Amino acid sequence: MKLLKSKTDQELIRAYINGDESGLKVLIDRYKTKIYTSIFVRVKDEFLAEDIFQETFIKVINTIKTGRYNEEGKFLPWVIRIAHNMVIDHFRKEKRGPTVINGDGYDIFEVLNFADDDAESKLVRSQVDVDLKKLIQLLPDDQKEVLIMRHFCDMSFKDIAEITEVSINTALGRMRYALSNLRKMIEDHNMTFQFN
């Protein structure tokens, strides 16, 4: 298993195709937080996100096993695209449009317990981050989504652009506006934070 963790996505897929089930397990472990979060920010429901996450990987497994996977070097964007389509299918069945986080007070950060307990999640528990989270909830939805994906899920702007179906420049612009708006709110509330 340790040897597999150093393999590329493509090598892990080949291992899985050749009968090594742990190849897929390593891939799931490698990307579960990013994929789950990409689902959660759209559905805003922990249990529904879990269901769609499971359905996504059933589809991934079926596609790989039937030899139809050919996205060399692009496993994560491919899976996130499948997850995005599963979310759209869910909302079509529900006969309502997909939404992203709004100001209804639901704390998106509860989902971050799904991630490994790293330095960022320890910071989230501090009082400073509790205050910051309250301010983040006041941002416009598109800015909030990019900020969460970038800083709390450690996603690249390329992945964020693909998930949110905008250009990389638009994702970067939303991030700039989010940070600018946060700085202004922090000043307005006489709080002290450091932004890079």
From TrEMBL:
<dbReference type="InterPro" id="IPR014284">
    <property type="entry name" value="RNA_pol_sigma-70_dom"/>
</dbReference>
<keyword id="KW-0804">Transcription</keyword>
<dbReference type="InterPro" id="IPR007627">
    <property type="entry name" value="RNA_pol_sigma70_r2"/>
</dbReference>
<keyword id="KW-0805">Transcription regulation</keyword>
<comment type="similarity">
    <text>Belongs to the sigma-70 factor family. ECF subfamily.</text>
</comment>
<dbReference type="InterPro" id="IPR036388">
    <property type="entry name" value="WH-like_DNA-bd_sf"/>
</dbReference>
<feature type="domain" description="RNA polymerase sigma-70 region 2">
    <location>
        <begin position="27"/>
        <end position="96"/>
    </location>
</feature>
<dbReference type="Pfam" id="PF04542">
    <property type="entry name" value="Sigma70_r2"/>
</dbReference>
<dbReference type="Pfam" id="PF08281">
    <property type="entry name" value="Sigma70_r4_2"/>
</dbReference>
<protein>
    <submittedName>
        <fullName>RNA polymerase sigma factor</fullName>
    </submittedName>
</protein>
<dbReference type="InterPro" id="IPR013249">
    <property type="entry name" value="RNA_pol_sigma70_r4_t2"/>
</dbReference>
<dbReference type="InterPro" id="IPR013324">
    <property type="entry name" value="RNA_pol_sigma_r3/r4-like"/>
</dbReference>
<feature type="domain" description="RNA polymerase sigma factor 70 region 4 type 2">
    <location>
        <begin position="131"/>
        <end position="171"/>
    </location>
</feature>
<keyword id="KW-0238">DNA-binding</keyword>
<dbReference type="InterPro" id="IPR013325">
    <property type="entry name" value="RNA_pol_sigma_r2"/>
</dbReference>
<dbReference type="InterPro" id="IPR039425">
    <property type="entry name" value="RNA_pol_sigma-70-like"/>
</dbReference>
<keyword id="KW-0731">Sigma factor</keyword>
